[in-house]
Structures are given as C-alpha cells and as structure tokens.
Amino acid sequence: MPHSALTALSPLDGRYAPKLAALRPLLSEYGLMHRRVQVEVEWFIALSEAGFAEFPVLPESAKGLLRSLVVRFSEADAQAIKDIEKETNHDVKAVEYWLRQRIGHVPELADKLEFIHFACTSEDINNTSHALMLKAAREQVILPAIDGILTRMQAMAHRFAAVPMLSRTHGQTASPTTVGKEVANVLARLTHARARIADVVLLAKMNGAVGNYNAHVSAYPEADWEEFSRKVVEERLGLKLNPYTIQIEPHDYMAELFDATVRLNTILVDWARDVWGYVSLGYFKQKTKPGEVGSSTMPHKVNPIDFENAEGNLGMANAMLTHMSQKLPVSRWQRDLTDSTVLRNMGVSIGYSVLAYDSLTRGLDKLELNETRLAEDLDSSWEVLAEPIQTVMRRHGLPDPYDQLKKFTRGQPMTRELILGFVNALDLPEADKTRLLAMTPGSYTGLGSQLAAKIKL
C-alpha cells in the first residue's frame, strides 16, 4: 500500500497534516538534513578563516556558493543525501559525501574537500543541528502559536472584566468573580510559563569524539580550539557553547525546554477543562457553521470538541516530552545511541503541542458569552452573600456572626427576601446596613473587574 495521508501511522502526518505544515520543514528528517548542511558549511568556512597554512581564506564567491547550498536546500537535495546513506549506512557521513559532490568541481574548493567535517564527530554536527531545529521551531512556530492564545485571552479578560460570574469552589456555589478575572488568572500563569520556554538557552558542542578536542589538537596543537568552537557555535550559528561534554551534548537544556513546555501545556489542560465546564453550564455558547454536525444521533448538540481535542493532544505531548526530558540527559559512559532514536521524535512531541494550540485557538474563536445564563445562576445563589454579611458583622463585634450565618443559610434555599430580612434585623451602622442591602450576588465581585482590566502580556 503506498504511503499517503490515509495510510500514515501518525495522525500528525495524516488527518492533521495541514495544521502542522509550518513545523514540518523544521523538525522533520528534511529539517535535520538541512541543519546538518548548515553546520558543515559554517564549520568549513570558519576553518578557512582560522589562519591554517593548508587552508587559506576562501574567496567570497566560494563562501557564497557554499551558503547557497543551505539557502536553496530542497527536498531533492535531502533525497540525494538519503540515497547516499543507502550506501554509507551512516546519515552524517552521507551529508559529508553530498557536500563533496556538490563542490568538488569548484576550482577554489576541489583541493580542500578533506576539510569538510574536519576533526568532527557525527555528534558535533547532530547536536548543533538539533539545537538549530529547536531554535527555529521555537521562534517560528511554538511561541507564535502560544502568543495567539495569550492575545485572545487578554482580549477576553478585558472584554469580560466586569461581567459577574458565580464561582464554584469544590463544585459548590462560592463568592462571585468575573468572567474576565477567571481568564486573567489563567493568562497570568501562561505568561509566566511562556517566558520560561522563551528563556531556555539552547546549547551546542563542537569539541570532538569525547569532548576534549583530541583530533583538533593532534592536527593543529597551537590553535585555540575552545575559542574557535565558541565562535562557530555562538557567532555563526546563534547558539551557546557548552564547553564541558562527553561525545554528546548532554541534553540538559533540552530537558529544561521540554519541561517548560510541559508546564505550559499542563496549565492549558486546566484551562481547556474549565472552558469545557463553562460550556456545559451554558456560560459560553459556541458559534456554529452551516452543515456542521455535533452528534451523529442528537441533532441539538454542539460539542466542545476543540477543547476536548486540545486536552487529548496536550496529554500526548506531555507524555512524550516528559519521557524525552527524563531519558535524553542519561547516557552510558561517554556515549550510547539511545538518545538518537528518541531525538527523531522531537517533531512528534512538539507537533502534538502545536496541534493542541491550534485546537484551543479555534475553540476560543468560537466562544460567545451567555450573560443571561450567568445572571440566572447568580440570581439563584443569594446564599453567597453570607460571606460579606458575616464579615461586616465581625467588623462591628456582633456575636457569633459565622455561626449565625451558618445556621441561617446552610442547607436552606436562600432568596433575596430572606437575605434582606436577615440584614434588616442586624444592629449595624446605617451606612453599612444600606450597603449590604444594596448588594446582590452579581455586584459582590470585589476587585475582580479591576484586576481583569489591568492584566497585560
């Protein structure tokens, strides 16, 4: 059976493939090959500028040709490398041979081919490529997708800042809040979590087979290889050099990045479940599209499927990201290959996150606030005013305010009339009594609206 979207094992490359088009060139096998070529080219050019007698500075035309191989790298180029790998049975060596083929005919480069991959171990190329892949994915896809959610939530927090809503602590009626404040609560958490993702420093090593520059020093013992490597990694590739490694970069920064992503995803699971509940209560309605079906048998239903899909895919992402963060920093002695096959799933784990962000974005765009339903819930919950009444009673030293309100309200259906009657019978200063008598469940929201209105990204 030929490979197609219908026969793909992963839904990321099947059913959901269009939603991940931006991620695919960055974290796929193609993306890895592309970055390998970039690293090999920059290392090669840097060697030509290091002052070695055997490798004088390349003319700008030759540098431009080399860098054009990166800029114009295509799927056909990736396939050509893959074809070479069938013979070498080594993916990084295949990139080296492909580069030799592409530049071997150039007079200024033909006698310098041995400086391709000079003194490098495969992991020098791979770890740097993985860091570049994550850098591009974070900048171009992950953070923009997160920011799309945060922007929408900030707009909701501000738009609904003063719309009162009944709280439900432990699932029971509780002191009212506002819709905007509840959105702001989540937004504040997400903003912090987003910063943790953005702040992770992406590391790379270019120090040879066991991290000691053994081969480098054997060829050019007088060179400052630590500084040379730092310049390539930091100034040419925009990463940060890790000076102390074994054969592999130990992936601690990856674990930090993946754990930070898990933390943000966990907050989004919490949010998706809350919105699901608010839809169930009728606080939110969902916009519908002509021809859309909510249930195969119940025509009236409009299911909160976007938030359900988001929750499910966030769970998939977190399971994989957690495994990667726990496995990748562990390597037997100076190197084992268990990290290699796991790293090939970076795109899958991040892909499930991005898919979830897309679902949440679409779900948020469909929400419509049902202020009538919110008001109905508040108007049937006058018992929540027991809190402010007993608090004012405490201020003025009335006897046993908590116990009085507990006996009056607990297990009893409360109405506006009952609450007003209780307040009228209290020996309180007139100003405070008037304020309590004017209070309703919908007005008892404290600083909720102000807090929501001033939330910023």
Keywords:
single chain, 457 residues, mainly alpha, Fumarase C, Chain B, domain 1, Fumarase C, Chain A, domain 2, Ribonucleotide Reductase Protein R1, domain 1, 3 domains, two-stranded antiparallel ribbon, two-stranded parallel sheet, 60% helix, 5% strand, elongated
Tell me what you see in this structure.
The protein is mainly alpha-helical and 457 residues long. The protein folds into three domains: 23-118, Orthogonal Bundle (Fumarase C, Chain B, domain 1); 123-289 and 301-375, Fumarase C, Chain A, domain 2 (Up-down Bundle); 382-440, Ribonucleotide Reductase Protein R1, domain 1 (Orthogonal Bundle). It is 60% helix and 5% strand. The chain contains 20 helices and six strands. It has helices at 24-27, 29-48, 60-71, 75-88, 91-103, 107-110, 122-159, 179-199, 214-219, 225-236, 252-281, 305-327, 338-343, 346-366, 371-379, 386-395, 401-409, 416-424, 430-438, 448-453, and strands spanning 164-169, 172-178, 203-204, 240-241, 284-286, 367-369. It has a two-stranded antiparallel sheet. Strands 3-4 form a two-stranded parallel ribbon. Strands 5-6 form a two-stranded antiparallel ribbon. The chain is elongated and about 100 Å long. The two termini are 49 Å apart. The model has no long low-confidence stretch (mean pLDDT 95).
